Amino acid sequence: MVRFMVRRLAMALVSLFFVVTLTFFIMKAIPGGPFASEKSLPPNILAAINEKYHLNDPLWKQYVDYLGRTARWDFGPSFKYPNRTVNDIIRDGFPVSAAVGAMAVGLALGVGLLAGVMSALKQNHFQDYGTMVLATLGFSVPSFVMAGLLQYFLAYRWQVLPPALWGSWKNIVMPALALSALPTAMIARLMRSSMLEVLQQDYIKTARAKGLSERVIIYRHVLRNAILPVVTYLGPLIAGVFTGSFIIESIFAVPGLGRWFVLSIANRDYTVIMGTTVFYSLFLIAMNLLVDLAYVIIDPRIKLVDRKE
Amino acid sequence: MEISRDLFQPIAQGREDAEAIVRPSTTYWQDAWRRLKQNKGAMAGLVIIILLTVMAIIGPWISPYTYDAQQLTAEGTNRLPDATHWFGTDDLGRDLFTRVWYGARISLLIGFVTALVQFLIGVTYGGISGYLGGWVDEIMMRVVEVLYAVPFLLYVVLLMVLMEPGLKTILIALGAVYWLPIARLVRGQVLSLKEQEYVLAARALGASPWRIIFRHLIPNSMGPILVYTTLAIPEAIFAEAWLSFLGLGVSAPIASWGSLISDGIASIRQYPFQLFFPAFFISLTILAFNIFGDGLRDALDPQLRK
After folding, report:
1. DSSP state for residue B15 in the 8-state scheme
2. Contact residues, chain A, for B152 at CB < 8 Å
3. What is the DSSP-derived secondary structure letter of residue B26?
4. Chain A contact for B134, CB < 8 A?
5. Domains defined along chain B, listed by start
6. pLDDT score of B49
7. How close A129 comes to chain B (CA, Å)?
8. Contact assessment for residue A175 and residue A155, using Cβ atoms and an 8 Å cutoff
9. Could you tell me the maximum CA-CA distance found in chain B, to the nearest angstrom?
10. Which domain holds residue A239?
11. Cβ distance B278 to B103 under 8 Å?
12. What tens digit of pLDDT does each residue of A140-172 get?
């Protein structure tokens, strides 16, 4: 277990190193810098700016500097908004994104699990068909289309929620709903199929034969075993919700990290692009580690060891 | 009722054809196709996919308008759907019916081509990694694992910024990033298949690794690969739409479903129909591919064979 975690952490660090390196060189390869656009600056000013941001240093030195600063969690100032550092942007943007993301994941888990369980328990009844039709639809409607529809109906037609911007809890609802549609459908489908599989296992028969009540069987035996695929899905889901939120944040004008990322690409704001990319990768890696740990807690039979195929 | 011997009579049969197989043998693919045909949902999905493809080909052609012809008059722009403009017009007076089907061409093209690129890269990479095994496999899979830690779309975006904008770039960027799951899948399949006797036999006959991978191992793991590739198509369409939102998709006046939806959302308050048509067709396409892919999975899964 400990060996496994150490190994995973080491792998994560190597991955992160590659992410940082890859991002750095891709950014450097892109023609046109943040100061090359719009009006042309006088050459001496451009030189001074390049000097200030160390853009004149040899590439390897810039790279080593960048690695060192990243290791110290310092992504430097934004090129486009010099009075803000990338760390500020992450500190301001992440809680906003996290609030939307957490609500979306919460919704998806709550609704998806309920729907999946109900569907499995009422297999081939109308509840099952109804849920699965809805799930298939939720699977097929892209989140930004969902966002458009929500905005049109909830904000313009019926005017129950503000169409965009940030401030009160009401602003979280629509982005979270739009983001949660796909994962809800996915969780419902996953849960249904894994419930159906578990319900056919011999230990469920044993539990029934012992005379346990249906409630106990479902709660203690079926759910606990059936939820594992959903847990596996949670890691990529959380990452997906956070990357997917770029567009949702743009549509709803939510000042989260996703919007910063979009803006920074438009602005060629190197440091912000790199900072947010590294942050997202770190986040994704951490989530996958957590999922591995959650596995052990839910299913004590699973032992985390070095896999040797 | 009593059964006596004289109720039976021997079938006249020569010795020579006792071994002959009377019924035509059913191959794996024939069997799968038979089961797929019985699955109504999957067939509906297939029919929708074919219809959409046909419309994408002939749609812009049967319309009297071109996808980029503007009509900058007060009654030409933002027209509601009517007999002359079936899906209405956009803010530049371009006919949306034409643009939606023109966009279908682009979106479906992106879907099919990137799925093909992923298929080729993933199958080659995974096949080689799984068959060679040992340290080669170790290194190749570490590379995949590292790339997995990167949020896919971030890298598509970075590649898009790096290369010249345009359709070709989108195809390359999406194909270059999304092949990882297929490579993993193929490797897993190859790992389990390569211990089989027929591989040993092929090796004993002196077949090259290349031949074993592509003539024996890959065809035998085609089922899951095909399912995955089918499901990769809607994902690519989706990813392109996503890029359009970031302004990194196809550039105007070319339309894709993604760029049409992106434009539609911008004017949703006044002209919701401009969002409705592209949104409807992209959802229908993704739905069709998903139910077809599900059906294909059921049909190709050997465990479900009766």
Report:
1. S
2. 243
3. P
4. no
5. 38-64+91-304 (1.10.3720.10)
6. 92
7. 13
8. no
9. 96
10. 86-308
11. yes
12. 888 788 888 888 777 777 766 666 666 666 677
